[in-house]
């Protein structure tokens, strides 16, 4: 299963990366708007402008922290596939796509859709929704900005999860090696 196309018994649910980027932004804006809107409703703008200024005043530090967190995003995908899906670490591939300036993780081994979904959702939940939700509880602009950024980063994952919505949890899926998305094995009639 290490080739580009696993065969005619699979449906290609992938999307070219550049197109996926634009679609994922559109998909995440409503969720980001909900958290930002709730924060503004509860606390007002408060220190949000100051947080934005602090980020722009320390571009190297901010970029370094965000780069490390984006790498962690990919590691969370991989860890879920290993621990939930039973995929050996040696079969997980990491890389960096220069054209889109993005790191990626790829699992060339087949797994069930349920496990693939868990791996797809965890970064969104752990790095996006959880910090944004905690920001609403503890009134933290920094947590809010972190959460909003990682909701945006997880947009491609949301797009893939959306494309998988019609497939049962036991369906077989193979991660696409070069585009956002996957192949799903056709069901026997």
Written overview of the protein:
There is one protein chain. The chain has 189 residues and is α+β, with helices and mostly antiparallel strands. The protein has one domain. Helices cover 58% and strands 12% of the residues. It contains 6 helices and 6 strands. The strands form 2 sheets. A 4-stranded antiparallel sheet has the order 1-6-5-4. A two-stranded antiparallel ribbon has the order 2-3. Helix 1 (17-43) runs antiparallel to helix 5 and helix 1 (17-43) packs across helix 6 (155-163). The radius of gyration is 18 Å and the shape is elongated. The chain starts with 9 loop residues before the first strand and ends with a strand.
**Biggest sheet, open or closed, and with what strands and sense?**
4 strands, antiparallel
The assigned structural class equals alpha+beta
Broad shape:
elongated
> How many discrete domains?
1
Strand content: 5-15%
User: H/E order of the elements?
Assistant: EHHHEEEHHHEE
What is the assembly state of the chains in this entry? single chain
The radius of gyration over CA amounts to: 18 Å
Q: Show unreliable segments.
A: none
Strand order of the largest sheet: 1-6-5-4
């Amino acid at each position: 299963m290490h080739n580009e196309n696993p065969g005619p018994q699979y449906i290609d649910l992938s999307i070219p990366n550049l197109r996926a980027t634009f679609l994922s932004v559109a998909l995440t804006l409503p969720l980001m708007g909900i958290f930002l809107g709730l924060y503004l409703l509860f606390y007002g703008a408060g220190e949000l402008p100051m947080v934005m200024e602090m980020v722009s005043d320390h571009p190297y530090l901010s970029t370094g922290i965000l780069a490390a967190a984006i790498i962690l995003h990919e590691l969370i995908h991989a860890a879920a596939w290993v621990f939930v899906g039973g995929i050996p670490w040696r079969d997980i591939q990491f890389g960096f796509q220069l054209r889109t300036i993005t790191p990626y993780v790829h699992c060339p081994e087949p797994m069930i859709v349920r496990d693939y979904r868990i791996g797809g959702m965890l970064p969104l939940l752990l790095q996006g929704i959880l910090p944004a939700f905690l920001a609403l509880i503890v009134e933290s602009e920094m947590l809010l900005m972190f959460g909003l950024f990682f909701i945006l980063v997880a947009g491609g994952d949301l797009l893939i999860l959306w494309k998988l919505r019609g497939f049962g949890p036991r369906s077989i899926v193979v991660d696409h090696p070069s585009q956002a998305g996957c192949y799903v094995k056709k069901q026997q009639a």
